[in-house]
From TrEMBL:
GO terms for biological process: proteolysis. The keyword Ion transport does not apply. PANTHER family: PROTEASE DO-LIKE 9, PTHR45980. Gene3D superfamilies: 2.30.42.10, 3.20.190.20, Trypsin-like serine proteases. This is Protease Do-like PDZ domain-containing protein. GO terms for molecular function: serine-type endopeptidase activity. Keywords: Hydrolase, Protease, Serine protease. It comes from the Eukaryota. Signal peptide: none annotated. Residues 9-19 have a biased composition (Basic residues).
Length: 570
């Protein structure tokens, strides 16, 4: 089977909108809001701009590459039959065995990835969801390693690989998962797996209209499949699974469920990217997205340098375009100066020590930034300057030239990864929770919102939580958004039963910094009452002695093993 064989259905909780059944082999996909084209665990729906919601549809189940090729005319590129699809080789004369040998090893390096997932249950954080299986694609690279998508092995409990033409599945070990770039690195201990297979070689970033061939194991059959197209766009894309923006390729080759993690080859048999998501929209057809080689090499070299994945750094600011001439004049810019204005600086970012609001960033590492925030890319092309930042590694320094009060300053800035107030991922850790007197406290994250409100959480979640998710900045590295997730009904909490997903602002007059801070204050409280100040000017008051005494009976009633998660016990 190419796809997960089971679906999980959400249950109606506390009067919320009923969740749609999750299609395990067709996760949600991409740029501006489509669904990750993988055969695996459902990925988050893309974060589209509010007010511009459009309906997305899953990819069709039929796979391309099943039609017999028409005979090529003299002088055209010749297709070479290669077990389930066609790999294109350069035109010239009759196809020789040397050309076949050049393409076939690349095909043989493409493997099928089988994964068993067990996701955390963020709505009931003391347990996990029912396990399910998925299949996707991957390919062998140098150093006895295999590349696939991060969402293909997210929350994995077991990963197995099967080579083309083999009937054996080999147990794989996950070496690293790059959530932001949606890439995972695997290996296999069994020496037999590596016999007779040449690793895939990487090519350079393709140009527009360059031919690409996507190879993988999508839905529609069990054997390897090949679809072909051309590069139609190169720009900074929204990576749905990673909730980040990195360089990406748009192609017109079909990328269906199960293609995720498979390589995209150029017409010379070199890998130029990894298929990872597609756009499903009523007005669009055959729009697929590929992770290009600069992002792949950054991930691999990051792992080789650090022994682990450290992430893609960012410039911790929000910025504004400077295209209006009056705005430029008011900010003291000369006619020959261009740049972008700093709106806000992340308090937890290293840049907060030197950059200030209303600074004009003129250049990054010696490359001038235009008034629209772009920099030169290749001949006739421009790209967002965040591309320059993403090419750096965590901990590296960059030279930033800034205009402040009509004077030019230069700063050496140490780059770091993004610290969000509402985390986009939990990266394999079980969710934290704390229960007292039936009140379930949790820290808000994107997976939590998706668990509570479904893939359309950006429209269905409480407005106050969404505003903080989209616009609030963490004031310290360990700050969290703590909420009362639900109230497990008991005599002690009569009258509070309808409190759901409401932020906890303070406890007994002390601000709540994070969940661990709240646990410490409640557990060590010697006052007569426990008083929680909530959002919307609500308060919850409980008698300390009776509240703590009632907690154990409530846990027993609901079969909950502990009043807090393991990470809060230390």
């Amino acid at each position: 089977m190419d796809d997960p064989s089971s679906t999980s259905k959400g249950k109606r909780k506390r009067g919320r909108k009923h969740k749609a059944a999750a299609d395990n082999h067709a996760p949600a996909s991409p740029v501006a809001a489509a669904a990750a084209a993988a055969a695996d665990n459902p990925a988050p729906a893309a974060a589209g701009r509010r007010g511009r919601k459009s309906r997305r549809h899953e990819a069709p189940a039929d796979a391309d590459g099943s039609r017999p090729p028409s005979p090529p005319r003299r002088g055209e590129a010749k297709p070479v039959a290669n077990g389930g699809g066609d790999a294109v080789v350069e035109a010239g004369g009759p196809v020789g065995w040397d050309e076949v040998a050049r393409v076939v090893p690349s095909m043989d390096a493409v493997v099928k990835v089988f994964c068993v997932h067990t996701e955390p249950n963020f709505s009931l954080p003391w347990q996990r969801k029912r396990q399910y299986s998925s299949s996707s694609s991957g390919f062998i690279i140098g150093g006895r390693r295999v590349l696939t998508n991060a969402h293909s092995v997210e929350h994995y409990t077991q990963v197995k690989l099967k080579k083309r033409g083999s009937d054996t599945k080999y147990l794989a070990t996950v070496l690293a998962i790059g959530t932001e770039c949606d890439i995972a690195l695997l290996t296999v201990d069994d020496d037999e797996f590596w016999e007779g297979v040449l690793p895939v070689e990487f090519g350079s970033l393709p140009a527009l209209q360059d031919a690409v061939t996507v190879v993988g194991y999508p839905i529609g059959g069990d054997t390897i499949s090949v679809t072909s197209g051309v590069v139609s766009r190169i720009e900074i894309l929204s990576y749905v699974h990673g909730s980040t923006e990195l360089l990406g390729l748009q192609i017109d080759a079909a990328i269906n469920s199960g293609n995720s993690g498979g390589p995209a080859f150029n017409d010379r048999g070199k890998c130029v990217g990894i298929a990872f998501q597609s756009l499903k929209h009523e007005d669009a057809e055959n729009i697929g997205y590929v992770i290009p080689t600069p992002v792949i090499m950054h991930f691999i070299q990051d792992y080789e340098k650090s022994g682990e994945y450290t992430g893609f750094p960012i410039l911790g600011i929000e910025w504004q375009k400077m295209e209006n001439p009056d705005l430029r004049k008011a900010m003291g810019m000369k006619p020959d100066q261009k740049g972008v204005r700093v709106r806000r600086v992340e308090p937890t970012a290293p840049e907060s020590g030197c950059l200030q609001p209303s600074d004009i960033i003129l250049s990054f590492d010696g490359i001038d930034i235009a008034n629209d925030g772009t920099v030169p890319f290749r001949h006739g092309e421009r790209i967002g300057f965040s591309y320059l930042v993403s090419q750096k590694y965590t901990g590296e320094k960059a030279l930033v030239k800034v205009l402040r009060n009509s004077k030019v300053h230069e700063f050496k800035i140490k780059l770091a990864t993004h610290k969000r107030l509402v985390a986009a991922h939990v990266k394999g850790r079980p969710p934290s929770y704390y229960i007292v007197a039936g009140f379930v406290f949790a820290a808000v994250s994107v997976p939590y919102l998706r668990s509570e409100y479904g893939k359309d959480y950006e429209y269905d979640a409480p407005v106050k939580l969404l505003v903080k998710h989209l616009h609030a900045m963490a004031q310290s590295p360990d700050e969290q958004l703590v909420v009362v997730s639900q109230v497990l009904v008991a005599d002690i909490n009569i009258g509070y039963e309808e409190i759901v997903n409401t932020q906890v602002l303070a406890f007994n007059g002390q601000p709540v910094k994070n969940l661990k801070n709240l646990v410490s204050m409640v557990e060590n409280c010697k006052d007569e009452f426990l008083k929680f100040d909530l959002e919307y000017d609500q308060i919850v008051v409980l008698e300390t002695k009776t509240a703590k005494a009632a907690t154990q009976d409530i846990l027993t009633t609901h079969c909950i093993p502990s009043a807090m998660s393991d990470d809060l016990k230390t």
